[in-house]
Design brief:
heterotrimer, B: two-stranded antiparallel ribbon, 67% helix, C: mainly alpha, Four Helix Bundle (Hemerythrin (Met), subunit A), 84% helix
Chain lengths: 125, 661, 196
């Protein structure tokens, strides 16, 4: 991607690389699309499947189009991508976990709260 | 005419005596400065030498000046708060009405964190980092200037609220639904949001700037492992800034969308979830406190090594501890809201993580103490600040670990115990560190040392003031006093509040001594000239250049072969370099664009706050144009020829004398 | 005399590139906060429509194809520029702009249709999250298209020199990054919205 990397690969080779990348990317999108529209999976399986497809697509784009991993050492951009992805996952996943718990404990209507308290009562709290 | 003035109206002028006083006093202060500048014909000098400078050292000094002015405002706010609580126990009436009190504690927190602490931090990094890394400036000097002026724009918006509109009453973090339209339709919360958003963009850009500087602009031979620990702490800090500040931008942005476009992120109706705000804001907020304290830790590393005349103990573990904090600071944030109801499992996880993160900090403290062991200690004022830090911060850290236990936290969350804890760590860690740093590096920038005795007195007074102001708060918190209360019924609390108010006065006195120190030192500067560039017998590269440091930092770019390069190199001095060793150097030309972008950003914020959409739109467009212009500017540097450098650099070889032990 | 110049130029280029990457990563974190918020609020429809009521899978599939193709053409444009094929580069840049405009146009049409039917961002937390997340992406696309426009404008008269190629490579970085974000919007907003 840098204007300073020597032109080892020819234009034709790069062109083919990108065409391949586009085809694979589009294929993944179609698979995801039909999985949803034609109801190929149950709910949790579908969620996992879609996320996996998105992750795969994400990697393809990173490697094929963004040339991640091809820079000279020290690979600061690679490490910073990895660190950021890691942090992003932590923030998103932890937030989902936290808020799911919060909503369960704190997000109830008065009627549901009453139900919950009765249930806790029966458990002996 | 509605579209022109939005909701701006003179009805928003203050009506309470305290706020009226501020609304008159502050503009008067500004006018006084303007008058002085005009009388002494200093506008051109100011513009050419400071406001348009792209020299990181100058930008750093400006940050520090602004931050110290804000410190005075912040302490004044603190005194108002404590004066209120000292006089509002049973039978007392206090001094201010509730609305004023709420604005004051909100302003106090906001100003101290965003404009004092962040300002001092960016200021010192600007001043020190390029010198310490053996380079001429930061990676992006123009962007550096923009960052500073964004900081100033945010600061001005924050203070303008006092003059018209009133400030937010929602605390320094502005939790909804209180800060939503339903409960706060006025401009106060918007002032808070936009002053932080604008300053926050500046911070993010600085984070990127400093990280690229460290990764790409170190002197030849300075591998990361040979970098001073201060530079390592800045590295980790900037990583935290880059990853955490966008969360703040997004969250404040969502709150702004709720308020300006009627959205429902955090509203109490139509599906909004205010708890999500708390979650997100603290996902930023916890890394933020590490962003504040890590550079201070870096300063201590330099100060302890220099004044123990011994290399820092455990360089490797210091780095490891910093990296550990870089990861762990992102998995503890829930400890700020254990009580919000996420349940035992979530609380347990974050509680354990919080306890773990205390360990790397502990490692650092022991390393500093081990550095002192068998060193030849000089009891200078930076070192006094360090000692004050060890005692104060350790206490604060320990109370933090106490609260890491959710069960304990349920008892003391949002009481004055918490307030005491975080002031303990911020004052002991961050403030004392930056005071040490300012004293330590002052001669490098200004060419003379600050008066030592007054410096030590200031440190002692700060330490005493801190104890008197905050120890009573620990007791009060354990007795059940919650934070942010403007009056209370329990007569047993009164003496504690009175003592605390006295403590704030002692801190004010300490600041007075510091101002005296500046004034006296300037008066006596000729007797305290730093003639060698190395007044403390330092270890790192910044001490190898003359004081005051020339604009170009190093006449000849240094080469580094080991840690503490200067400590060894100074004894291997080869005398004046030959003319052929100098090459032409390029420096950035001054640019007024940063200042203009600051003004435009202020206009943007002002426009949104007062619903003058046309103003906000035009300002935003103009900012984009200013930036685009810069990217097309190919003539942004000027050259200093080698021959001239040879002459300039030659002067110091006539005046330097060997440093005596 | 000035031996340091080429080295300093190279350093500046690398520094700018790294700086731009770091800005993009900070943008990733911004989007993460918006994504997390959307995911938590997406079921809060407050009596209004849910995803399945307002999203059209074929429509968003077309949109996605347009953006993916524009990402491809951008990559080819840069490759052409690196190989000094000025005409090819400009052609593919124009294609990038066209597909980008198609994407943006489709998005604006979707938004205005929703608003016209009364499904605005003021109706529920779900719609708030939707408009903000997708809208922020759309704003980035708009900025990118303006940036691309300035390139094409400058390239009419100027040579495709090292300087321009550098700036072009930063643009393509930005453009690919927007495509990456869209993948997640496509998945989590639209596919989840319709199927889960």
């Amino acid at each position: 991607m840098s204007a300073h990397t020597p032109r080892h690969t020819s234009y034709q080779r790069e062109y083919r690389r990108y065409v391949l990348g586009l085809i694979v990317a589009l294929a993944i999108v179609y698979v995801a699309y039909f999985s949803v529209v034609n109801h190929w999976f149950s709910a949790t399986a579908l969620a996992a499947w879609l996320l996996a497809l998105a992750a795969g697509q994400f990697l393809i784009q990173l490697l094929v189009f963004l040339h991640v991993g091809e820079e000279a050492k020290p690979r600061w951009t690679l490490w910073s991508i990895l660190y950021t992805m890691f942090m992003m996952l932590i923030v998103v996943v932890a937030s989902l976990w936290i808020m799911a718990n919060m909503n369960y404990n704190m997000g109830m209507s008065p009627e549901k709260m009453q139900e919950y308290m009765l249930e806790q009562n029966q458990k002996g709290f | 005419m509605d579209w022109l003035l939005g909701r701006f109206s003179l009805d928003y002028l203050p009506t309470e005596p305290a706020t009226i006083g501020a609304a008159i006093g502050m503009p008067l202060g500004v006018l006084a400065v303007v008058a002085l500048l005009t009388y002494f014909h200093k506008w051109t000098w100011l513009w050419k030498n400071w406001l348009t400078s792209l020299d990181a050292k100058k930008i750093g000094v400006m940050y520090i000046v602004v931050a110290l002015i804000m410190l005075i405002r912040g302490v004044a706010d603190a005194f108002m708060l404590r004066a209120q609580t000292a006089t509002s126990g049973p039978g007392g009436d206090g001094l201010f009405d509730v609305s004023t009190f709420q604005q004051v504690f909100t302003a106090h927190g906001t100003i101290m964190i965003f404009f004092v602490a962040m300002g001092l931090m960016f200021g010192l990094i600007n001043v020190v980092l390029p010198l310490m890394l053996g380079t001429r400036d930061v990676a992006f000097p123009w962007m550096n200037s923009v960052s500073f002026w964004l900081f100033v724009a945010g600061m001005i918006l924050n203070n303008l609220a006092l003059v018209i509109g009133g400030f937010s009453n929602g605390g320094w973090l502005g939790y909804p639904p209180l800060t939503e339209l339903q409960y706060n339709p006025g401009p106060g919360v918007d002032y808070w949001i936009w002053s932080l958003q604008i300053a926050g963009v500046g911070s993010l850009l600085s984070g990127i700037n400093f990280l690229v500087t460290i990764l790409k602009k170190r002197a030849a031979g300075m591998s990361l492992g040979k970098m001073p620990i201060f530079a390592w702490s800045v590295l980790v800090t900037t990583v935290l800034i880059i990853v955490a500040f966008p969360i703040l931008t997004a969250t404040l942005g969502m709150l702004a969308l709720d308020r300006t476009m009627g959205m429902h992120f955090f509203t109490s109706d139509l599906g909004g979830n205010a708890m999500m705000y708390v979650n997100l804001i603290w996902a930023w907020g916890h890394p933020e406190v590490y962003i504040l304290v890590l550079p201070a830790f870096g300063i201590y590393s330099e100060v302890v090594a220099t004044f123990s005349r011994k290399k820092l103990f455990g360089y490797g573990t210091m780095v490891a501890a910093l990296i550990a904090i870089m990861f762990f600071s992102f998995v503890v944030w829930l400890h700020h809201f254990f009580t919000m109801g996420s349940g035992a499992n979530v609380n347990a996880f974050f509680g354990i993580m919080t306890m773990i993160i205390a360990i790397p900090t502990g490692v650092k403290i022991f390393n500093w103490l081990f550095t002192m062991y068998r060193g030849r200690i000089r009891f200078t004022s930076p070192f006094v600040w360090f000692l004050a830090f060890v005692v104060t911060f350790t206490l604060g850290g320990v109370t933090g670990v106490m609260m890491a236990v959710p069960a304990v936290d349920f008892q003391v969350h949002n009481t004055l115990f918490l307030v005491a804890h975080f002031h303990n760590t911020i004052i002991g860690g961050v403030v004392f560190g930056f005071m040490a740093g300012i004293t330590y590096w002052f001669p490098k920038i200004f060419g003379f040392t600050l008066n030592e005795r007054l410096g030590r007195y200031a440190a002692y007074l700060w330490q005493l003031g801190f104890i008197v102001a905050f120890m009573p708060l620990y007791a009060l918190g354990l007795m059940g006093a919650v934070r942010r209360i403007d009056h209370y019924d329990n007569p047993e609390w009164v003496p504690f509040f009175i003592v605390s108010a006295v403590g704030v006065l002692i801190i004010a006195a300490a600041i007075g001594v510091q101002l005296l120190q500046f004034a006296y030192s300037i008066y006596k500067r000729n007797e305290n000239r730093d003639l060698t560039g190395d007044p403390w017998d330092g270890r790192t590269l910044e001490w190898s250049v003359p004081s005051p440091a020339p604009e170009y930092n190093f006449a000849i770019a240094p080469t580094v072969t080991r840690r503490d390069e200067w400590w060894y190199a100074k004894n291997e001095l080869k005398g004046r370099p030959h003319k052929s060793e100098y090459s032409d150097i390029q420096l950035p030309k001054n640019s007024g664009a940063g200042f203009i972008i600051g003004v435009l950003s202020f206009c943007f914020g002002f426009g949104i706050i007062w619903h003058m959409w046309w103003l906000a739109g035009i300002a935003l467009l103009a900012i984009v144009v200013m930036i685009a212009r810069r990217t097309m500017n190919d003539d942004s540097e000027y050259t200093i020829m080698a021959a001239e450098l040879f002459e300039l650099d030659g002067k110091r070889f006539h005046t330097e004398k060997k440093v005596s032990v | 005399m000035s031996v340091s110049h080429p080295l300093e130029q190279m350093e500046k280029v690398e520094a700018t590139r790294l700086g731009f990457w770091l800005y993009l990563l900070s943008d990733v974190m911004l989007f993460s906060a918006l994504f997390a918020t959307f995911m938590i609020l997406r079921h809060n429809t407050a009596g209004g429509p849910a995803g399945v009521d307002i999203f059209s899978p074929p429509y968003v599939l077309l949109q996605t194809m347009a953006l993916l193709i524009s990402s491809f053409t951008a990559a080819v444009a840069l490759s052409a520029a690196n190989h000094r094929k000025r005409r090819e580069a400009i052609r593919y840049l124009i294609a990038t702009g066209v597909f980008g405009l198609v994407f943006l146009g489709m998005e604006l049409m979707e938004f205005s249709k929703l608003v016209g039917e009364g499904h605005t961002w003021q109706v529920s937390a779900f719609l708030t999250g939707f408009f903000t997340l997708v809208g922020t992406h759309g704003l980035h696309i708009t900025v990118g298209l303006i940036w691309l426009g300035t390139f094409l404008f400058t390239l009419r008269k100027r040579l495709l020199d090292e300087n321009m190629i550098r700036k072009l490579s930063l643009f393509t970085l930005f453009w690919h990054f927007l495509d990456l974000v869209w993948i997640w919007i496509f998945t989590i907003v639209y596919m989840f919205g319709v199927g889960l």
